[in-house]
Amino acid sequence: VAALTVQASGAWYAGTDGGVFRSTDFGAQWTLTALTNRHVAALAGAGVDLVAATAGHGVYHSSDAGTTWNPAGTGLPDPNAWALAMRPSGGVFAGTSTGVTRLASFGGTWEALASFPANTGVVSMLVDHTGFVYAGTLSSGVQRSPDDGATWTAVNTGLGSQRVLSLAEDQAGRLFAGTMANGVYRSLDQGDTWQQLPGTGGYVAALAVDAGDRVFAAVRGQAVLRSLDHGDSWAMLGANLAGNEVIALAVDPSHRIVAGTDHHGVYRSGLPTSDAELARSGTEHHPPTSEMVE
After folding, report:
1. Cα separation, 231 vs 168, whole angstroms
2. What's the pTM?
3. What's the mean pLDDT in 68-72?
4. DSSP calls for 12-62
5. E strand or H helix at 207, and its extent?
6. 232 near 197, Cβ under 8 Å?
7. In angstroms, what CA-CA distances link 128 with 16, 172, 207, 235?
8. Tens digit of pLDDT for each residue in 123-163?
9. Is 100 within 8 Å of 122 (Cβ atoms)?
10. Is 237 exposed, middle or buried (0-12, 13-18, 19+ CB in 10 A)?
């Protein structure tokens, strides 16, 4: 399970190497949506819009809870899409193996953003509360755009790794970046400067923040870490996930943390994220969802 997203309705979506699955009962049962036989690398949603980025087959869009899917737009320059971020004004940004593209409205034409560094792989994206756009890359750290993708600047001061796998923002506008080898970094100034956070060293595949500004990090070898103080300190959550590589995280409207693993499906917290336990359900190809435990 490489990707997770949760709609305001409470429906969960899981992106796998066999397509997109949907659950409406906190992961107890999963149903394969109409997007099948695709390796789904990222999911994003806003309102009724659900978007899936795939490896080798571009980006798909659904507006009916996955009952039908269509190409999100035409003319995508690179079919290998690894990251997504919804645009506040509609449409979506996609991070691909060669850069960032922008779609103003679903069904329209993708626009390559020429000012983005050429041939730079993008694996994470974020639009913050002010509309600034961020792209986490595999070779050029974090790139930032203040103008809907028209221009981009590297914002890597203090960032100890140029490989940024995950990005998140909390309610106060703090940014978090998960890196490939140096743990989690935090920025208090929209990426102008970054500070490495203690206790998170290593490969950080995913980040999530709940409505109470609790921060969650999927760190290789440490399952899921949780911070109750904006990243100043961390504690392990989901000790029963030891040996399972967590590569996707999401928080649902009931404040449960959801974790997608590389080979063992989906885990969920049995309690709200303030005192979560993590657990599992489903079958091999209907993402199992189990309980995480501290």
Report:
1. 12
2. 0.93
3. 98
4. EEEEETTEEEEESSTTSS-EEEEEES--EEEEEEETTEEEEEETTTEEEEE
5. strand 204-209
6. yes
7. 27, 11, 14, 26
8. 999 999 999 999 999 999 999 999 999 999 999 999 999 99
9. yes
10. buried
Q: Check whether 237 has a pLDDT greater than 50.
A: yes
DSSP one-letter code for 117: P
Tokens describing residue 61: 């869009």
Residue type, 195: Q
- Coil, helix or strand at residue 240: helix
Enumerate the β-bridge partners of residue 225: 217, 236
DSSP for residue 173: -
Q: Which two tokens mark 230?
A: 């904006």
Written as six digits, the tokens of 116 are 């983005």
Identity of the amino acid at 139: S
Q: What one-letter code names the amino acid at 97?
A: S
